[in-house]
């Protein structure tokens, strides 16, 4: 009873049921990433993997990422329509969809603080199941549902940038301790495709960096300026809208990379992760913090 | 930053974003329940909160619980239909739904072992986000999405009953240590509504007991006989289909009960839970194990 099982509609490798060794490895990775946040004073909250469409709409989700969206509805209970046909419910069988499945974890943090005030150096951590309607799936590398741990900074712009810089150093050091080579690539963030001012800002200064193993992004640091602060009316003591940033870890993708790097020996991978997580040199905060918005 | 935030379509209290204290309490409860399973030799696995309709259909989900079901689809990307209207996507906006959101955690355990062979005394534990389309919501007591920890026994019928008896004792002792009075009520299990032989068996001998605080069920023990073993072709060494049973803990409901019992003082609740979890008298396996199928 060790292997991960894949399942999916029409035989696609869209969903992974993780076996005991994979589960232990993902939990240990999550414990380490969470620990970095807690050490910086983060408070842990937990959000459900379902939100009202009205909440997700605040973040332009259906304008910027309609192709990725999964939405949830209940079944029309008349006329036997609630019985699936060939493993599917057609449009007439599903009543209106008033809920959406999130494709990122950090939404829960902004909704938690909606309408409130935060300190200039607020830090929150949370993990959630995320969902993406992809055009193809490839097991742990690209799933319809996966776990994403995030550390979310809310407060002054400087605070949001310092957090990203610290985590950039930690991610790179942790990868080094594991013997894994990670590229750091500037990436476009479609959040701002619909917002001309921010889209221009994104061209001038990248707002998203991905940490890639080959072509697979396994973590990212993201600058949102005051987009979420405005959309959720989160204010600083000064009265200004809060700035936010987040650090995201795709846990199943880390599992995919470690499985590959350790030739499928998940026991060896777990030992290495535990050692790397304890390593005071590699996981220390670098002396000279560079802002994440500057390419290294 | 302490309170739990509720959100939902049309203002319903359908979803809870748990604040730091509530998150810590839920994690501690889950650690204790998981620990009971691990102490009995359970292996932990993890399943996604989304399954193909074809997988959930194996368990008669859409025949027995169509009213509870949430199903997920992607958006029709033509003609601007992907834009929600009044916070909702109408039937034409959602393409066919090939995935379903589980309303219980244990499905992942059967799908993990599908087509395989298990030892006569197998034990698995997992937690998942579950989803229920309820006719009304009432915050932590009745949510559209909540966390359910399960300990799932697979093997001989005797093994499945011994596990339920042990957990029955533990749940009752743990509640006593917390100063909480829990009723133990026989309940009908709609799993077997569609299966005349099993429905008859259910009338003769209850297959589900709920542990209730007032009228709120916060844990249950469930006997499935060989229903899931047959539906997922899980076999014992003898060649017989595996018997299964499960113990389920509704984590947000425990949080609701403890919030009420400790008058909203979640710090006191956490201290009490930690003490009760350590208590060797109350959490020990009772000497005389009674099978869960006999009312106390």
Describe this structure in words.
2 copies of one chain form a homodimer. The first copy, chain A, has 296 residues and is α+β, with helices and mostly antiparallel strands. Chain A has a single domain, classed as BirA Bifunctional Protein, domain 2. Helix content of chain A is 33%, strand content 23%. In chain A, the strands form 3 sheets. Chain A has a 7-stranded mixed sheet with strand order 3-7-8-12-11-10-9. In chain A, strands 4-6-5 form a 3-stranded antiparallel sheet. In chain A, a hairpin with a 7-residue loop joins strand 1 and strand 2 (15-17). In chain A, helix 1 runs parallel beside helix 9 (266-278) and helix 5 (157-178) packs across helix 9 (266-278). The longest helix of chain A has 22 residues, at 157-178. Chains A and B meet through strand 2, helix 1, strand 3, strand 4 and helix 2 of A and strand 2, helix 1, strand 3, strand 4 and helix 2 of B. Strand 5 of chain A pairs antiparallel with strand 5 (70-75) of chain B.
């Amino acid at each position: 009873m060790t292997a991960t099982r894949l399942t999916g509609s029409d035989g696609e490798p869209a969903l992974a049921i993780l076996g005991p060794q994979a589960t232990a490895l993902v939990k240990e990775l999550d414990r380490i990433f969470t620990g970095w946040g807690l050490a910086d004073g983060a408070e842990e909250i937990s959000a459900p993997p379902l939100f009202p469409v009205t909440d997700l709409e605040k973040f332009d989700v259906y304008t910027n990422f309609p192709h990725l969206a999964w939405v949830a509805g209940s079944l029309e209970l008349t006329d036997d329509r609630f019985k699936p046909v060939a493993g599917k419910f057609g449009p007439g069988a599903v009543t209106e969809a008033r809920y959406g499945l999130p494709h990122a974890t950090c939404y829960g943090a902004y909704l938690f603080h909606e309408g409130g005030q935060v300190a200039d150096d607020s830090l929150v951590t949370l993990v959630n199941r995320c969902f993406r309607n992809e055009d193809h799936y490839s097991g742990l590398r690209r799933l319809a549902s996966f776990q994403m741990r995030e550390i979310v900074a809310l407060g002054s712009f400087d605070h949001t940038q310092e957090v990203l810089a610290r985590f950039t150093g930690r991610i790179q050091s942790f990868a080094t301790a594991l013997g894994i080579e990670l590229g750091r690539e500037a990436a476009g963030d479609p959040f701002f495709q619909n917002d001309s001012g921010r889209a221009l800002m994104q061209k001038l200064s990248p707002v998203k960096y991905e940490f890639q193993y080959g072509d697979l992004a396994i973590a990212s640091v993201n600058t949102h300026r005051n987009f979420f602060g405005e959309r959720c009316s989160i204010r600083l003591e000064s009265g200004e809208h809060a700035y936010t940033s987040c650090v995201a870890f795709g846990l199943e993708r880390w599992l995919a990379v470690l499985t590959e790097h350790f030739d499928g020996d998940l026991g060896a991978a777990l030992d290495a992760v535990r050692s790397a997580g304890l390593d005071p040199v590699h996981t220390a905060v670098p002396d000279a913090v560079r802002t994440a918005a500057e390419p290294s």
